[in-house]
Each structure stands twice: as structure tokens, then as C-alpha cells.
Amino acid sequence: MIPPELDEGLPLERIRDFSLEELLGMAIKAEIGAREFYTSLAERMEIQALKEKIEWLAEEEKKHEELLRRIYANMFPGEDVIFPEEHIGPELQPVARKLHSVEDIIDLIRWAMKAEEIAANFYAELENIMGTEDKRRLMRYLSDMEKGHYYTLKAEYELLLDWAMYSQMMNLGP
Length: 174
Prior knowledge:
The protein is mostly helical. It is about 75% helix and about 0% strand. The protein is elongated and about 50 Å long.
């Protein structure tokens, strides 16, 4: 089942009108969702080294959520985080659908990379349409975080490809 927040999109043009408070709430919600995704992905891993890397990514998402919550608390003291119903990145819907049905570890990592790339690009697009420097700076930071996750996954993906190729060569024999 696709989480409803991933199935509902939010057009970019609507986000322009969101307050910084709402944007931070969306970012926090996205970090929570990413952490839950990586936690569930790690549970499916049989390769211990890869499992540990995915668990590390889940922890990174948790740290990002905590950082964003601190930023929120500093900017809006005493106020509860406003979590919007909509989820950022409507273009993630196809990736979420695909991730749900993928069984192969290499495909899972490839699709997780795609999700991180889409999220990074989404935040970069938002940076271009934000009206204030505070909002642009936040979107740039979020985009950079997602790019970091993409490159971490890419390194693991390439190692898995090499391992799979090596494993196949060993099974072929002389």
C-alpha cells in the first residue's frame, strides 16, 4: 500500500505561497517518511554491510528531522510544528509505487537513488521560486542533504553491481 501522503501531490505553484513555517513542517514530514522508508528497507537487507549503510541513512534522516525541528523551534518559539496534509514532491508518486513492488536489492537501491535525486531536484526548483532569502537558503540546504543521500546510495549501488558481477563470474567457473 502506498502511504497516502505520497499518493497526494502538491503543485509547485502552490508552494510559493506557503509560509516558512509550513515549508519547515513539510520538510520535517518528509524526513520522517524517509527515515521510515530506510528503516523498512534495512529490514529487508540480507547483506550486513549494506544493511548497516541503510540503517546509517535512516539515522541521518532522523538527525535531519531533529535539526529541522531545532530550526523550527528557534524561528517559532513555543509553537507546535504544523504538518501539512499534502506531501512535497508529487513526482515521487511513481517511485513510491515502484518501490512497493521491488524485490531485488539492486533495484531497491536504484529506486531509492531515484527518489533522493527527485527530492533534491524538487527542493532546487523550490529554491528558484521562493520569494525570500530565508526560504531560498532552506530549500538549498534541503536539496544538498538529498544530494548527499543520493551519492551515498550510488556508492553502495556501484559496489553491489561489482559484487553481483563478481559473484556471477565465480559461479560460471573456468
